[in-house]
Amino acid sequence: MSSTLAKIVEIKAKMTWTQKNKATAHHLGLLKAHLGGGGGGPGEGFDVAKTGDARTGFAGLPSVGKLTLLSNLAGVYSEVAACEFTTLTTVPGVIRHKGAKIQLLDLPGIIKGAKDGKGRGQVIAVALTCNLILIVLDVLKPLGRKKINENELEGFGVRLNSKPSNIGFKKKDKGGINLTATCLQSELDAETVKSILAEYKIHNANVTLRSDATADDLIDVVEGNRIGYIIYKVPHCVPISAHRRWNFDDLLEKIWDYLKLMRIYTKPKGQLPDYTSPVVLPCSRTTVEDFCMKTHKNLIKEFKCALVWGLSVKHNPQKAGKDHTLEDEDVIQIAKK
């Protein structure tokens, strides 16, 4: 077992031994933060450089057809055989859909106990970097097998079909940790929040708790890469044939809907808008400032105002500041100081 997985197992064991109540919430929060912030990378041979506007992973038991699906969607070729554990590393591919560049990952087959270090548990750590995970199931095998996938993913902090926590979090340069709670908190207090953030070397930030939040909720927001939605229940499923390439259009539309991406088109001064290469933003970060940071980090330093056309404004064009929230397919022109 690798040192990373050994560390994960040790921390999880401590969490299991600790009785969960209000008195131990602070200790459990620190262990969970240490698991996320200090757990290290996914392991050699499994990590893949993140590219594009979003990342979608295919998870499932061995030999369920994930690689065939990836190959036919993205044109990636790798050895495929009618036996278990064919794919021993994470295989990446890229597709373009509605102007967005979406990275696809074929994750090595999940086996029972992976979350506890059995087999290739590193693969689930890679899954945590995805914006969306699709659990691939064989229609000829019992749907009860999906429970294995669910349990292993849950064990590594993947939230199944859950909505992101209602927590405001923003780093700042100085001023320490400012905590504001708009409702009664049963688990998080100022000391716990500061300790969790310290695990991520964050000592200056504004945190707003708008619901009764847990340490897991705060860690999810801080890490910013925990998965909020997974297609795995029948109402969310898409029947396909990977070999025959049946129903791929519906699959791509479902991926697009769940990723909740927004396309913002740029308009250079005195020119027509560029509708060929949108700046793609996640629905959680759609302000003019987010647009500037995605385009170029120095752009916000030179920012004067923005002219916006589209659904987010009442007049076309309308002058807007950096806090203005954009809508899908808005057009924006940045004026510099």
TrEMBL record:
Residues 260-336 form the TGS domain. InterPro entries: Beta-grasp_dom_sf, DRG, G_OBG, GTP-bd, GTP-binding_2, GTP1-OBG_CS, P-loop_NTPase, Small_GTP-bd. Residues 54-260 form the OBG-type G domain. One of its GO terms (molecular function) is GTPase activity. Keywords: GTP-binding, Nucleotide-binding. The keyword Transferase does not apply. Pfam families: MMR_HSR1, MMR_HSR1_Xtn, TGS. NCBIfam families: small_GTP. This is Developmentally regulated GTP binding protein 1. It comes from Rhinopithecus roxellana (Golden snub-nosed monkey). The lineage of its organism: Eukaryota, Metazoa, Chordata, Craniata, Vertebrata.
